[in-house]
């Protein structure tokens, strides 16, 4: 085994022992799996279609754990595979650790393998056998580097056959997919395929995403969100301190979170910036691009009139998908690309691609497309990811907004309504948060999710998402259960085709977190109510090291 250089903090973190929920502590043979009644789908949309697609796995009941004797699972040996799918999130390695420990606790002969590079590793037969020795240096560490990740989407008959052959050849009994909404949609699809083929193979998902959008009335949060938002809050808090010290710059900060504004909202709670753009609010108010620019510009002008030519603006990564005319433009671009893939692939000039797309959409949208800076327009037609999503992390919306605000201020200057200097600085905090050393919360939570997944596969359950509830309580009091993956499904259009997907959770404008945000933000606008929370604390008083997110606290009325 190659030598791994470790920092002093990493050495200390390896000593950290995650705290398991009480029900899991004695192992799977002392847990009785109880099937509850069928739970209502998250969405009423197209449930007939979901049921048609998932004939063999739709309508499963919720699973809860109770104390009991389950000696039978001790007598059989299982081989379980695990993959990381999608973007990295702090705590991923602890999921594997929990899964490994849960399997070995009940039977030392149980085997855990990790496929390399996500689901593509299954297709290529690339895996490693996981042992205590190989796993030792990865406990409580960030990143997905132990087995790496991938974004392969399983949808062709050839891919399904390859997975089937791989699992039969290697005698794999179960697959655990650690991923977000798209990745766990893959888990549901593979579970359905195994059930249809009567393969007696099980698939369980684990909720992962720093974006915070894999949650609903059954799932409280995904692992990684706590750590990532604490990392971003430290960076934003540092900038708040800096801007209040130099008092001469406007910092426009884009934060990761492609389809929802949960990350921005949580970081706002932690740092109190002057301007916070929430995509869901923009959409609900039907705010045009010019209205968004005016809102930001008006605040800049008001602060300048108080002699404050500085401030901090938080921008969600996916903001352009919430501005109505931009949203309409993106839908139309996706349809054109989906219906003309071959033609567009043969056009090498970006100018000509834009011209072709503009010829296929309405004059109103064509004019909008042509009014955008060339860099933004070219990014809107760039390659999609394997799930059909536009690569929002490549679109520099913070610079786009700066240019638009600057142009608006120049017009006001010509009219004599703005005479002050505007000195903007742009930032994108995204990848900085994905692989941080997990907070105590995420280290405990991810470990429990992995251990929970081990219980599910040992009991022959498939088509479920590992779930832990009551997360604002001390870990020993957390409740362990599982939710059917199909319960969270809806039908969405992806690259001009309707596809079943796990429904993303947007910021609820009627929810307690947003209502509390509304109460607070007005005093942030003209004042310097900045907070600099500092780095994640791994050692010290429990109220500091084990704190949950503000979002969870508001949702649970703490």
Task: Report on this structure.
By secondary structure, the protein is of the alpha/beta class. The two termini are 47 Å apart. It folds into 2 domains: 8-224 and 438-502, Rossmann fold; 225-434 and 511-537, Phosphofructokinase domain (Rossmann fold, 3-Layer(aba) Sandwich), CATH 3.40.50.460. It contains 22 helices and 16 strands. The strands form 3 sheets. Strands 1, 2, 3, 4, 5, 6, 7, 8, 13 and 14 form a 10-stranded mixed beta sheet that branches. A 4-stranded parallel beta sheet has the order 10-11-9-12, sandwiched between helices. Strands 15-16 form a two-stranded antiparallel sheet. The longest helix is centred in the middle third of the chain and has 22 residues, at 225-246. The chain has helices spanning 8-14, 47-53, 72-75, 92-106, 119-124, 132-135, 157-169, 181-196, 225-246, 262-271, 279-284, 289-305, 324-339, 341-345, 350-359, 363-371, 374-380, 397-414, 440-458, 512-526, 542-545, 550-555; strands spanning 31-38, 61-67, 79-85, 111-115, 127-129, 149-150, 174-179, 202-207, 250-255, 275-276, 311-316, 424-429, 464-469, 479-484, 489-494, 497-502. α8 (181-196) links the parallel β7 (174-179) and β8 (202-207). α9 packs across α10 (262-271), α12 packs across α18 (397-414) and α15 runs antiparallel to α16. The model has no long low-confidence stretch (mean pLDDT 93).
């Amino acid at each position: 085994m190659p030598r791994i250089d470790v920092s002093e903090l990493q050495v200390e973190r390896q000593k950290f022992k995650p705290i398991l929920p009480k029900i899991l502590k004695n192992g799977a043979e002392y847990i009785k799996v109880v099937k509850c009644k069928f739970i209502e789908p998250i969405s009423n949309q197209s449930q007939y279609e979901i049921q048609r697609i998932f004939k063999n796995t739709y309508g499963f009941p919720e699973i809860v754990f109770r104390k009991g004797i389950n000696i039978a699972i001790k007598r059989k040996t299982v081989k379980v595979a695990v993959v990381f799918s999608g973007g990295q999130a702090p705590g991923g390695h602890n999921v594997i650790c929990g899964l490994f420990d849960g399997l070995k606790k009940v039977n030392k002969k149980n085997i855990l393998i990790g496929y390399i590079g996500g689901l593509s590793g299954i297709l290529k037969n690339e895996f490693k056998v996981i042992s205590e020795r190989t796993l030792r240096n990865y406990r409580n560490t960030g990143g997905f580097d132990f087995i790496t990740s991938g974004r392969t989407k399983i949808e062709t008959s050839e891919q399904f056959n390859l997975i089937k052959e791989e699992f039969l050849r290697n005698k794999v009994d179960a697959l655990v997919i650690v991923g977000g909404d798209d990745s766990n949609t893959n888990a549901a699809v593979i579970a359905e395929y195994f059930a249809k083929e009567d393969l007696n193979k099980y698939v369980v998902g684990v909720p992962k995403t720093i974006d915070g959008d894999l949650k609903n009335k059954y799932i409280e949060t995904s692992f990684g969100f706590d750590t990532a938002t604490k990392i971003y809050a430290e960076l934003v808090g540092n900038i708040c301190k800096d801007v209040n010290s130099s008092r001469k710059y406007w910092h426009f900060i884009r934060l990761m979170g492609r389809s929802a504004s949960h990350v921005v909202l949580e970081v706002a709670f932690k740092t109190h910036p002057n301007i916070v753009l929430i995509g869901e609010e923009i959409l609900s108010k039907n705010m045009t691009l010019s209205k968004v620019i005016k809102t930001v510009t008006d605040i800049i002008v008001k602060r300048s009139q108080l002699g404050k030519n500085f401030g901090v603006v938080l921008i969600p990564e996916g903001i352009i998908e919430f501005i109505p005319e931009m949203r309409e433009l993106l839908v139309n671009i996706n349809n054109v690309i989906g219906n003309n893939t071959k033609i567009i692939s043969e056009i090498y000039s970006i100018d000509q691609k834009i011209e072709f797309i503009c010829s296929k959409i309405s004059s109103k949208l064509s004019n909008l497309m042509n009014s955008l800076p060339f860099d933004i327009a070219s990014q809107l037609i760039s390659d999609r990811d394997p799930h059909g999503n536009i690569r929002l992390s490549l679109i520099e919306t913070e610079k786009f907004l700066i240019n638009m605000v600057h142009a608006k201020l120049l017009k006001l200057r010509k009219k004599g309504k703005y005479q002050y200097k505007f000195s903007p600085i742009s930032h994108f905090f995204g990848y900085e948060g994905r692989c941080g050393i997990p907070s105590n919360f995420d280290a405990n939570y991810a470990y429990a999710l992995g251990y929970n997944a081990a219980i599910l596969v040992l009991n022959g359950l498939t088509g479920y998402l590992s779930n832990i509830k009551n997360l604002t309580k001390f870990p020993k009091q957390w409740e362990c259960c599982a939710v059917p993956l199909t319960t969270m499904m809806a039908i969405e259009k992806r690259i001009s085709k309707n596809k079943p997907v796990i429904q993303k959770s947007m910021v609820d404008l009627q929810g307690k977190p947003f209502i509390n945000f509304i109460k607070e933000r007005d005093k942030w606008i003209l004042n310097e109510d900045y907070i600099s929370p500092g780095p994640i604390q791994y050692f010290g008083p429990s109220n500091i090291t084990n704190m949950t997110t503000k979002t969870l606290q508001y949702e649970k009325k703490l």
